[in-house]
Amino acid sequence: MTTVAPLANLVNVLSMCALLVYVVPPGHDEFRLIWGTAALLVVLNSVRVWIPRVILKDRYRPKHTTQYDYWALMLEVILLGLLIVILAAAMLPVIDSSRKLVLIATFAGVMGAGAVALSTVRSIAVVWILVHSIGLLAVILPKGTTEYAVLSYQLVVYTVTLVIGVVYLWASFRSRCLAEFAAAAERQTVSLLLDDFEGGTRDWLWDVDNTGRLSHTSIQLSQISGIPVSELRVLSLRGLLDRLEVGSTKSGRTSLAVIDDHLERLRPFREVVVPVRSGGVDRWWSLSGHPRVTEASEFLGWRGVGSDVTEKYNYERRILWLAATDGLTGLPNRRTFGTELVAALGSLRPEEQVFVGILDLDNFKSVNDTLGHPVGDKLLISVAARLNRASAGVICARIGGDEFGLIVRESRERDGNAMFAHYLETLREPFYVNGNRIEMRASIGYASAPDDSDDADTLVMSADLALYAAKSAGKNRVGRYSPALHTQASERASALQELGSAIEARQFELYYQPQVLAENGRVEGFEALLRWNHPVRGLLTPRHFIDVAEETGLIVPLGLQVLHMACTEAATWPESTYVTVNVSPAQLISAGFGERVLDALELSGLPSKRLQLEITETGTVDGLGVAELDRLRATGIVIALDDFGTGYSSFESLKKLPVDILKIDRSFITELSEGDSAVVTSIVEVAKALGMQSLAEGVETAEQLHLLRSAGCELVQGYYISEPLPAAEVAEYLKRT
């Protein structure tokens, strides 16, 4: 409104001068002076508002609020309208028709022109119209003539039309202003964001015109690429990438192919990562772009964003490396091992086979227990390094605590045992860790594809079974998978699931094998041998379930059940006949073992001297076990040492053990011959020297019995004497013998 005020006031002044000169007749000079002065003062009020805001706008500091100036202009509009109405009311009665015509035309023109000029502020424009129309109606309606009635009607129509027009113009003006304000704010925001985008980050904008040349070359792009702005302006996008040696790597050539394809087909691309070389340093950029096309489908070029993602890329590569690598040894981990195995099986050729080996360190736990976990970790690192050196072209991974996996592709003729024995050989040299000399051995189990399976999980499981069998056979050896191992594993799994409920259901029974005097065959006692009367699989020997019972701890309740059965059944035998019960190391060191043995004797009524407890050498090493044996032996219970000669006890430690009978292992008896009885003779002599009886198990031939008699062995047992007997047949056997 202040912008159009000078022109509007000039029009008003000219119109007022015309009215004062022509319309006001002679003889009304006083009215002319007073009215003209009042109108001039009203006009000067808008000039007072206009000069500071328009002429002095750069130096203007408003003393009044916008609201104050609004009401000042509102007052001006009202006063100026009233002055024109007063002029009409005063002159219409005294002027002739020609002057009336000029007055009415001027009135209508001022009313309409003012409405248009003031339409940017709706309220002021409407007040302007209403002051004029209502004031003139108040002047002409009382006249009562036909011409004034028609004029009044026309004035009402004219007023309504002007008001509608003002409202429309105001709404249009307001919408246009709001749009301009929003656009200006958006431009300012975008400008600020772009300034911050290119000035505060390692990202930049790029534009390419329809000739392919870079049309936007920012300083940020120049700094990151190391290319001056002047040189960038003559490069194309592809020329820039060639300048940065993107195509020098395989990944770079792949990225260039993707970008070229999108550029050619005018398809947007997003976050294409390209390797660049800037200033002799390898970095990674991420490029995104979209084509610029007019509504008429005219191609204008490309616009996009570039980002330096080197740190992010390296971080992601590090994360992927950690996800695929064992953190301690740097070898591939179990996940990568599985992925590589699947890939190897998928690309297997007919003339090839894939070996899967699982290597496990023997007695690694003892290193951690005696030297500490830090030494154990360093030992694993050394083992991994040695295996890695010995496995060129082979996948070697750490798949567990002290387990390593090997994937080997070889011809169908290659022997797996000899190949994997090579890895065991690499570990024979001692390791030196923190001043400790460590001898480390290992066992390996392996399976092969396609002979054993072409499924990765099945191959690993088969190699694990072979490893378990190798360790059970004595460790430090290579084990080959066979279907029999799977059968044994299935039986073992079944035993693991059913053993607890079988103990509760009392599905176990005892068979008894006689122990007789070698000299005359008199029965001295029976060894209780456990059998599982399985409801589905029939009668199972201990080899099917004892290992599982010991691993799960169920050997303790099972052993207690065996002890009670043996004592109860032996109580029905002749008083001179004893029963021998095997005791595992876990039983021996379990809490309250001695009390449970005495309880079994008391409940059955069996004298303590008729009970023998048979232990193994490994079970006597523990000091707690020795103390428990001493207490039991003091009650009259006889202690027998089983499998003598195969364990770890020295003769010196044997003197300290509370043992009454030395049981010679069946392995010595099986290999017994006329010229090779020195070992058996030595054991018998040791037993005599220590005041113990000697007992040979596994006697199967008359020749073996004869040699044992000659060596001085006192007691024998074995299939040559008798097979194990059910409890119900013991009495009949005693009658016969």
How would you describe this structure to a colleague?
- By secondary structure, the chain is an alpha/beta fold.
- Helices cover 54% and strands 19% of the residues.
- It has 28 helices and 22 strands.
- The chain has an 8-stranded mixed barrel with strand order 13-14-16-17-18-19-20-21.
- Strand 3 and strand 4 (281-293) form a beta hairpin.
- The longest helix is centred in the first third of the chain and has 55 residues, at 146-200.
Characterize this entry briefly:
By secondary structure, the chain is an alpha/beta fold.
Structural class by secondary-structure content: alpha/beta
- The unreliable regions are none
Shape call:
elongated
**Ends distance:** 137 Å
> What proportion strand?
15-25%
The pLDDT mean sits at 86
**Main sheet characteristics:** 8 strands, mixed, barrel
Rg from Cα: 56 Å
Order of strands across the widest beta sheet? 13-14-16-17-18-19-20-21
What level of helicity do the residues show? Answer: 40-55%
**DSSP summary: helix tally:** 28
Find the count of extended strands (DSSP E, 2+ residues): 22
